[in-house]
Amino acid sequence: QVQLVESGGGLVQAGGSLRLSCAASGRIVSIKSMGWYRQAPGNQRELVADITSVGSTNYADSVKGRFTISRDNAKNTVYLQMNSLKPEDTAVYYCRSEIRSVAVLPTRDYWGQGTQVTVPS
User: Fold this and answer.
1) β-strand pairing of 10-11 with 115-118
2) Most distant pair of Cα atoms in the chain: their distance
3) CA 34 to centroid of chain Cα atoms
4) Would the pLDDT of 11 be above 90?
């Protein structure tokens, strides 16, 4: 069994910063891509940023230059440093990890439970 546990959400004023963390644990053989998604009320879940096992990154246009994704492979953890936060960044943030839990089987996606980020207008 694999679990993803997120932390670091909260309420922050516009212009402030937050750092999200997501640690994967359990039966893990290897982790390929890891990423962060967000979902605001009434909206679909959208990609914020993702990172491959070798560190290649991809960002949504709306967060480029403000957010930075990173990972610590030794800790099976992905981070999202969020700076210059705006009210439109308010959402539930979810982490996703593409994990191989059995050596002979393909990878599959696992999701965290979500953490709320609120930036008041």
Assistant:
1) parallel
2) 50
3) 7
4) yes
